[in-house]
């Protein structure tokens, strides 16, 4: 059902990228088990940034799109990188759990006491979300027949993480600063429409739009009648067109072309200098001093061969003359022999690498 969202936006000439969260859809992991909501945000942050540095997209606008829990993820991505995205479309965002679905405070306290003992147990009492979210009976039945959609009771840890996340977002709505369009059905019984109103009123964004749809439920893009879904997507695309028409996006593959010579790092104290010269960071220090190459293995299964211009104790690096290398396996038709992997690479003259993407750094590879 949600694939239609990507198709509609693609037809409007937007490139659309998304991932299945760990334990959701086709991703591996215990079904719908969220150990830490922060892990989902970090996965999305790493994936979306890996897309944004691709040659075809590095000079394009970057907009977040999130429905329900995805709306919470989008807001947390903005909180993590306040100036990276050009805007966001938030469809019934999970900034607050509806009181009708939220367990009683006494139940929450009891469940919290067992959180670390039985985190994956499906014991959280709640109403049927599918019945509450999808208004159109035919689409509701289609959702129920989709084997990729979790339909059991929420796992203990998952429910508590979602509750904490929504409460945290509710308290920090004034930190939202990017342009956004928030949409909500005023008959939504899953996420409270009042929180979208609060987001609109409290956000610090100078460019913000809100629309409530009379009589519509939670599933605005997948659970309403076709006529209603057409109305919702027409509004979304109109907002995107307005905000992308004259947009000049910041190039992010080579963000330091004009200012790299002015980069300054704090002068390390004596202990830090010793750590840099004798500890693991000595590999980076020698590359800076001797203008030698290092080979960096990254978390996205890519390798970077280049020279280090600057770095800090967290392994954030400015790299120069970088050769990025990775392997792709071409897709083949069903029943056909699996294709052989293809090695690919590309050249990047200057780039910034976040330290949390680094797995290992090797000195002077041959």
Automatic annotation (TrEMBL):
It comes from the Eukaryota. The keyword Nucleus applies. SUPFAM superfamilies: alpha/beta-Hydrolases, Sm-like ribonucleoproteins. It is found in: Cytoplasm, Cytosol; Nucleus. GO terms for molecular function: RNA binding. GO terms for cellular component: cytosol; small nuclear ribonucleoprotein complex. Its main location: cytoplasm. One of its GO terms (biological process) is RNA splicing. Residues 281-366 form the Sm domain. Gene3D superfamilies: 2.30.30.100, alpha/beta hydrolase. Keywords: Cytoplasm, mRNA processing, mRNA splicing, Nucleus, Ribonucleoprotein. InterPro entries: AB_hydrolase_1, AB_hydrolase_fold, Hydrolase_4, LSM_dom_sf, MAG_DAG_Lipase, Sm, Sm_D2, Sm_dom_euk/arc. PANTHER family: PHOSPHOLIPASE-RELATED (PTHR11614). Belongs to the snRNP core protein family. This is snRNP core protein D2. It comes from Hevea brasiliensis. The lineage of its organism: Eukaryota, Viridiplantae, Streptophyta, Embryophyta, Tracheophyta.
């Amino acid at each position: 059902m949600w694939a239609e969202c990507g198709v509609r936006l693609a037809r409007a000439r937007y490139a659309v990228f998304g991932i299945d969260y760990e334990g959701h859809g086709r991703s591996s992991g215990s079904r719908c088990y969220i150990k830490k909501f922060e892990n989902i945000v970090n996965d999305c942050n790493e994936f979306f940034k890996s897309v944004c540095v691709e040659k075809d997209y590095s000079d394009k606008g970057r907009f977040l799109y999130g429905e329900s829990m995805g709306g919470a993820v989008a807001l947390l991505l903005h909180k993590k990188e306040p100036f990276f995205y050009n805007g966001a479309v938030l469809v019934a965002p999970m900034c607050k759990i509806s009181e009708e679905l939220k367990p009683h405070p006494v139940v929450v306290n009891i469940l919290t006491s067992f959180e670390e003992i039985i985190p994956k147990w499906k014991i959280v009492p709640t109403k049927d979300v599918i019945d509450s979210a999808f208004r159109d009976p035919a689409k509701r039945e289609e959702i129920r027949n989709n084997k990729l959609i979790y339909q059991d009771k929420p796992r203990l840890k998952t429910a508590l993480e979602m509750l904490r996340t929504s409460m945290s977002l509710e308290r920090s709505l004034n930190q939202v600063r990017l342009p956004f369009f928030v949409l909500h059905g005023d008959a939504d019984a899953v996420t409270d429409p009042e929180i979208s109103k609060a987001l609109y009123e409290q956000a610090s964004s100078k460019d913000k739009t809100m629309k409530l749809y009379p009589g519509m439920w939670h599933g605005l893009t997948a659970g309403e009648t076709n006529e209603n879904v057409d109305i919702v997507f027409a509004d979304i695309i109109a907002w995107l067109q307005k905000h992308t028409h004259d947009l000049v996006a910041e190039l992010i593959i080579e963000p330091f072309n004009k200012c790299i010579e002015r980069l300054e790092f704090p002068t390390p104290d004596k202990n830090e200098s010793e750590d840099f010269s004798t500890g693991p960071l000595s590999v980076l220090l020698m590359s800076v001093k001797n203008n030698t190459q290092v080979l960096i293995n990254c978390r996205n299964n890519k390798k970077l061969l280049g020279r280090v211009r600057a770095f800090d104790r967290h392994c954030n690096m400015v790299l120069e003359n970088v050769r990025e290398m990775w392997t792709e396996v071409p897709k083949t038709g069903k029943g056909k022999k699996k294709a052989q992997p293809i090695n690919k690479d590309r050249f990047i003259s200057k780039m910034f690498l976040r330290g949390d993407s680094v797995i290992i750094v090797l000195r002077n590879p041959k």
